[in-house]
Design a protein that fits this description.
Helices cover 31% and strands 25% of the residues of chain A. Chain A contains 7 helices and 11 strands. In chain A, strands 1, 2, 6, 7, 8, 9, 10 and 11 form an 8-stranded mixed sheet that branches. In chain A, helix 3 links the parallel strand 3 and strand 4. The N and C termini of chain A lie far apart (43 Å). The longest helix of chain B has 12 residues. Chain B is globular and about 35 Å long. Classes of the chains: A alpha/beta, B alpha+beta. Strand 8 of chain A pairs parallel with strand 7 of chain B.
């Protein structure tokens, strides 16, 4: 049996090489949101100019932070700035789709820096594929999660277990998914997650009624993300990726298309 | 996602690498995204457009479309000044899905360099490119 997402990925991949396309895979420790964001943007630029010749998957956790998608407004943040300041929780506005969300330790975040062009993957199929990664990871721990066609992400009953928000720049997707493994859920009560009212948020540990280690969750997610996206992972780390993308940005062509002439006065697009 | 044979490709427009179309009418170039692009994106829920009077170079980002939790950037197929935007898309972004070459138009540009338009692909070249991606 194959799922719609899997079939879609397989069909659109044409004839994938045995074992899939080579990718860099970085299992990162707790990483500051802005640092990871900057790395993603640089990797996208490096992928676009060809400095980086393969997809990259970042798997990590963030210290507590709220992020707002492109159209997200602070109206869905229901606590005062003073409370957030007291708890040292930043609010960051980013280019991904979706509204407001929370990231914190115990939530597994996946950022595939993925070309949707080479496997000719439609955006809709890619979102389904990310949902499938989370559904199968949850299933590995005995938790049955499902899709909701109207509200993307994955759900257990009326509670959200995993969220999706991506951005696409010249055929390269970045940002990704956030999967609640065993994090403190209280900060979600300070927002209307994804701009929705009257929904709950849950975690793998809560649904399973037993603790889950992040190491186990990471292992399961790695298997599914590489399988579903057809990737053959080669392990790397944050420093290596930062060095690789810094070499690129030093060339001064941050957001340019591969066929554009290089200039040195082109300012990075935030 | 549809097969290429099921998609429409207008023959009175030119196409850019990033799947925008451009149509030259008198002194202005109207811009939208191709049927292929809207099919790839899925249901579009929001279109973010620039302001009239803004100027961009060919290849610059002029706006975004948001579909199923995904924000995709849009790029200028020709450089120039924005002389009109399709304000109807604010209330009915689905026009981009339903009528990508007509009601779903996005911006009108006063081009700064006529050569930009000439460098774009015609229908045949664009179809060849898309077929190449499928192999």
């Amino acid at each position: 049996m194959s799922t719609p997402a899997q079939r879609a990925v397989r069909q659109s991949s044409g004839c994938p090489a045995p074992g899939g396309r080579a990718c860099f895979y970085a299992d990162l420790p707790l990483t500051d949101y802005r640092r990871a964001l900057e790395l993603q943007r640089r990797l996208v630029a490096a992928r676009n100019t060809g400095v980086l010749d393969r997809d990259v998957v970042l798997m990590l956790e963030h210290p507590a932070v709220f992020t707002l998608g492109r159209r997200g407004g602070r109206r869905n943040l229901t606590v005062s700035p003073a409370l957030l300041a007291a708890r040292r929780i930043a609010v960051v506005h980013v280019e991904r789709g979706g509204d407001i969300t929370y990231h914190g330790p115990g939530q597994l975040v996946g950022y595939p820096i993925l070309s949707l062009r080479s496997p000719r993957l439609a955006v809709t199929d890619y979102v389904s594929a990310l949902e499938e990664v989370m559904i199968r990871t949850a299933a590995d721990f005995g938790v049955h999660a499902r899709r909701d066609a109207r509200n993307r992400g994955i759900w257990v009953g009326n509670a959200k277990l995993g969220s999706i928000g991506i951005a696409i720049r010249r055929g390269i997707s970045f940002h990704g998914f956030a999967f609640n493994v065993n994090l403190a859920l209280e900060p979600f009560s300070w927002i209307n997650p994804c701009g929705l009212q009257g929904i709950g948020v849950t975690s793998l540990a809560k649904e399973r009624r037993r603790p889950v280690t992040m190491a186990d969750a990471r292992r399961a997610a790695k298997k599914h993300v590489t399988e579903i996206l057809g990737l053959l992972p080669a392990a790397t780390d944050l420093e290596t990726l930062e060095a690789l993308s810094a070499r690129h940005s030093a060339a001064g062509s941050f957001s340019m298309a591969p066929d554009c002439p290089r200039t040195t006065d082109h300012a990075p697009r935030a | 996602m549809k097969e290429l044979s099921e998609l429409k490709f207008a023959d009175d427009v030119r196409y850019a690498e990033d799947h925008e179309w451009a149509k030259l009418e008198g002194d202005t170039v109207t811009v939208g995204i191709s049927d292929y692009a809207q099919d790839q994106l899925g249901d579009i829920v929001f279109v973010e457009l620039p302001q009239v009077g803004d100027s961009f170079a060919k290849g610059d980002e002029f706006g975004t479309v948001e579909s199923v939790k995904a924000v995709s950037e849009l790029y200028m197929p020709v450089g120039g000044e924005i002389v009109a935007i399709n304000e109807a898309l604010e209330d009915s972004p689905e026009s981009v899905n339903n009528a990508p070459y007509t009601d779903g138009w996005m911006i009108k540009v006063n081009p700064s360099n006529p050569a930009d338009y000439d460098s774009l692909m015609d229908r045949e070249a664009y179809l060849e490119k898309l077929k190449g991606q499928e192999e």
